[in-house]
Amino acid sequence: MSHSNETEASKTTSTAMQVIGRFVAAAVVLAITAFFTPGFTINSIWTLALSAIVLTAIDYLIVKFTGLHASPFGKGFVGFALAAITLYVTQFFVAGYSISWIAAIIGALIYGVVDYFIPGNQEM
């Protein structure tokens, strides 16, 4: 019985660490993307944190309902389009986050390249 409790506790800790890791990786990727994308601004660290949460939530919902991951690489044009749309739509949920359509397209490219090289942004 105690082995089962330990296993359950380690799964919970592992899942929590995965969520935290994904959040941190998403925030880093988003910050780098905003820095290198003209027309894409994030006003503060709190806006960045909230944006990372919103982007992760939107991506989760897209995966949950469609089975498609909003990643510019690995899913071809559909993943690229979903990434651009996700970056663009986030501005309607987060104050201090601003992006144009063109910046969303450029940002999806940059996000994909940076996301490819940042470790830890794996599926749960």
What does this structure look like?
This protein has helices at residues 2-36, 45-66, 76-89, 101-117, and strands at residues 40-42, 97-99. It contains four helices and two strands; from the N terminus they run H-E-H-H-E-H. The chain is globular and about 40 Å long. The two termini are 27 Å apart. It has one domain. The model has no long low-confidence stretch (mean pLDDT 81). It has 124 residues and is mainly alpha-helical.
Rg of Cα set: 16 Å
Widest β-sheet, arrangement of strands? 1-2
Low-confidence stretches: none
| Helicity level | over 70%
Order of helices and strands: HEHHEH
Broad structural category? mainly alpha
Distance between the termini: 27 Å
| Mean pLDDT over the residues | 81
Task: Outline the fold blueprint.
Elements: H1 2-36, E1 40-42, H2 45-66, H3 76-89, E2 97-99, H4 101-117
Antiparallel strand pairs: 1-2
Helix pairs in contact: 1-2, 1-4, 3-4
In short:
This protein is mostly helical.
Name some characteristics of this structure.
124 residues, two-stranded antiparallel ribbon, mainly alpha, 4 helices
